[in-house]
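Retro notes - structure team

What went well: the batch runner handled both jobs without manual restarts.
What didn't: labels got mixed up in the shared folder, which is why I'm recording both outputs here explicitly, each with its sequence directly above its tokens.

Job 1
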Amino acid sequence: MSLQQRPSRRILSVWLPRLETDRLRQGAGDDQRPTVLTMPVNGRPVVSAADAAAAAGGVAPGMPLGDARALLPELRTADADPAATARDLERLADWCGRYSPIVALDGADGLLIDTSGCDHLFGGEAGLCRDLTRRIAGFGLAVRAALADSPGAARAVARYGAGVAQGEAEVVAPGTVRAALESLPVAALRLAQPVAEALVQVGLRRI
């Protein structure tokens, strides 16, 4: 195959925004109470992750557990287990080998999959994305995904794109990355938090 005939690179970013609490819920049975994970900070328990129900009730990571319980007395808690979460993410990455031989971890809650030349096995890019997100959602995991020309663009749209619903994926057509990114917040650029905050302070809120 000549260089001109090679398919352009296409990267699928898979984001699992509540991976830590979703893992806990998988073994919770009928217990539907709002759930948080905690870790000790300066000798007291602090919320490290909150599921959707807890977040809807005002609980957020970084909040002391006592304050969280004041908001939601019925709160269910468990100790955070980053090592176990990492192992589960690695297992999911192995499972994603059905979509491409090239799968990489993206932080503690995401995956990057090089789908270049693989989408035809699923009826096209939309079909591949639909199959992957449907199956992952079937595992009881919240998921958002995006497919684009580069890892950074795919990651930005998956995590910050307003049009990406839970359990779905957005396909950014080749050559349209700039239009897809320009309305996203500067945090989507993977800048260090102080840098992103400084840009916002001087009025640069969008890419």
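Job 2
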Amino acid sequence: AIYLQDYGAPIGLRLASTHPERVTALVVQNGNAYDEGIDNAFWKPIKAYWAMPTRENREALRGLLSRDATIWQYTHGVCDASRISPDNWNIDQALLDRPGNQEIQLDMFLSYGSNPALYPKWQAYLREHQPPTLIVWGENDQIFPAAGAHPYRRDLKDVELHLLDTGHFALEEEGQQIADLMLTFLDKHVH
């Protein structure tokens, strides 16, 4: 079974669609495989960068690497921001601020643009191989909105969808609930 979240979702789906015989189940947490999941204001400047990878479009994304943006990723959409450890954004930001790392992150934003062209392949994998799938999604996520969770049900018969009242990093606020759902789901589907 593989866990798909954020940047890791396309990596996992590339692996799963290449070696479907190795995948017994999927757990998807704010991990996108559908156009609906990147059809919001957050993605507009990133899509502009994909379409025209100019210096100007690249620089327009640099703000996404700021401390305020990192804090926002962890706290936006959560029910109680006081429950989210500042260690998250302090550690992440320290890593983002290492010399040269912001350029790597901007390169990754551009590279992420290779994923939407693969959505039809991943959707075909889901339809053909029907891996049992648990979806636990932060419903208030503005990076990968909940609109990206629902389309999985078009392609999968054995899918369990839980929209949680939290944001992008759902584990930070709903870790116990997600763990409980995963244990029940994996006990049922992975032997």
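One thing worth noting from job 2: The beta strands are 2-4, 26-28, 133-138, 159-164.
We'll revisit the folder naming next retro.
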